[in-house]
């Protein structure tokens, strides 16, 4: 049962990863903490998982031409550099027993901000250009560095930071932000993971089960973006931030089961909605023929 559980968990989260352009760590890390993993165990396990899902999602987004390579490289290199600053910070927290509350609070702050940001973005009637002419180099370096620091601190790929900031401050359309984010994550995560690999015990059995499931789902999630408008993607991203945020709060007040149920309900809603979208799309295609 444990093998099946973690395999299916990896598959489900990787679908969300490919769809939203996040490595999946920002969902997996709080889920693992809700399941009883310590924060640092959850961080390292999520980083390894994120590496697999981001690679799988990239291959599909390449076909859809959703990756801005030059911009992604700048974001990725600046993120790789900042990962080395975050690891000593996390070890410092763990040694003093502060990781149990500092890491969740950091999550809550970031998720609150980005949930509001993407909700506002989804309500706008913004016209996006296919590729920004000259996004600010300074902004890209800052966003990449911030994502890299969060990647190592929270066990995420940084995509849940890169996607909304790329849309809001760099002018990327959501689908381009998603593809570029996955490429950036693939650069950042190895540096973040290696900073822990030789000093922190890692549950490789659980990690590999999650990755095995993740390799199946990420490409499918990326394909799902074809059936959604940019506005809908922004609103759904806001929704998953809110659901994850509330689940982390539940964890802090010892209501882990309620947090698991909430995240499960959102994931179920997403899959049902996506099935309906696919059926509607196919029905329109059949009618046009």
From TrEMBL:
Topology relative to the lipid bilayer, per the entry, is: Multi-pass membrane protein
Q: Which Pfam families match?
A: TauE
Main localisation, per the record? Answer: membrane
Q: Which UniProt keywords apply?
A: Cell membrane, Membrane, Transmembrane, Transmembrane helix
- Write out the transmembrane intervals: 27-51, 72-89, 101-119, 140-165, 177-199, 240-272
Does the UniProt entry include the keyword Protease?
Answer: no
Can you say where in the cell this protein is located?
Answer: Cell membrane; Membrane
Q: Which family does it belong to?
A: Belongs to the 4-toluene sulfonate uptake permease (TSUP) (TC 2.A.102) family.
From the Swiss-Prot or TrEMBL record, give the protein name.
Probable membrane transporter protein
């Amino acid at each position: 049962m444990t093998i099946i559980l973690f395999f299916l968990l990896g598959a489900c989260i990787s679908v969300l990863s490919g769809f939203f352009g996040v490595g999946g760590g920002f969902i997996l890390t709080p889920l693992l903490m809700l399941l009883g993993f310590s924060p640092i165990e959850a961080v390292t396990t999520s980083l390894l998982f994120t590496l697999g899902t981001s690679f799988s999602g990239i291959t599909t987004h390449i076909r859809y031409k959703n990756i801005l390579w030059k911009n992604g490289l700048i974001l990725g290199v600046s993120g790789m550099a900042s990962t080395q600053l975050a690891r000593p910070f996390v070890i410092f927290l763990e040694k003093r027993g502060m990781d149990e509350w500092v890491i969740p609070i950091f999550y809550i702050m970031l998720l609150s901000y980005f949930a509001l940001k993407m909700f506002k973005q989804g309500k706008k009637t913004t016209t996006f250009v296919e590729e920004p002419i000259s996004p600010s180099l300074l902004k890209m370096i800052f966003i990449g560095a911030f994502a890299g620091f969060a990647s190592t601190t929270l066990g995420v790929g940084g995509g849940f930071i890169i996607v909304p900031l790329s849309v809001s401050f760099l002018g990327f359309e959501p689908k381009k932000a998603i593809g570029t984010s996955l490429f950036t994550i693939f650069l950042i995560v190895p540096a973040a993971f290696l900073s822990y690999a030789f000093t922190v015990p890692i549950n490789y059995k659980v990690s590999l089960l999650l990755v095995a499931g993740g390799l199946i789902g990420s490409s499918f999630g990326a394909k799902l973006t074809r059936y959604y408008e940019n506005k809908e993607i922004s609103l759904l991203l806001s929704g998953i931030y809110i659901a994850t945020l509330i689940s982390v709060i539940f964890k802090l007040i010892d209501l882990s089961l309620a947090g698991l149920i909430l995240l499960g309900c959102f994931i179920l809603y997403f899959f049902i909605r996506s099935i309906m979208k696919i059926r509607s799309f196919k029905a329109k295609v059949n009618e046009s023929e």
